[in-house]
Amino acid sequence: MGDEIRLHSVAGSRSFRVLWLLFEMGLEPEVLTYDIAKGELRSPEFQGLSPAGRVPVLEIDSKVLFESGAITQYLCETRPEVGLAPGVGEEEREHYLTWVHYAETIGVLIQNLNLQQVFLPKPEMRSPTVIGIEVKRLAISLKPLEQILAQQDYLLKRGFSAADTMMGFTLESARHYVKFDRFPNVAAYQARLEGREAYQKALKAEGLQQFYDRDFYEVPEA
Known about the structure:
By secondary structure, the protein is α+β, with helices and mostly antiparallel strands. Helices cover 48% and strands 7% of the residues.
């Protein structure tokens, strides 16, 4: 496998999942950052790597991969010795797959809220009704996590896995819309994740996020 590892990233985006996972694996990528406001993801050069103009994009093993879930699966399957995902036939494989994909179920709800609260250029373009519904759906989606994390420290009983790198980024974004005092087990879990050396290393390498201008976004009045 080739030695060069290059991650195309936007700080505060799903690319953090991949960067964090790489550091958990002891891999040192070159991080190329982009500015959404300047339209850098729409350049022909970048879209040659990611047809939809989205991050993350990972260049590794002489391959180009995009989509954080697919990259996570590829990294774990090609580097099983790291032990961050149960293989086919191993115990908890079904739970691992469930949580990896459930992270993106929550991510879509956050994406909808980001559009309404962060990216629409004028406040009058926002829909308090839509925002209120999406916040409720996001809170409901956290309930299964609250239940499982009452029983164990990580999403799998065996311990920390790549499912946690997928979910940890998602929860960091969720805290901008749902108050975690309603979910103490989720809050404690997120604190455990943030305390990991690789998590802190990824934060430093990625730089400041470009999206959120406040810690918490209230549902606007109708």
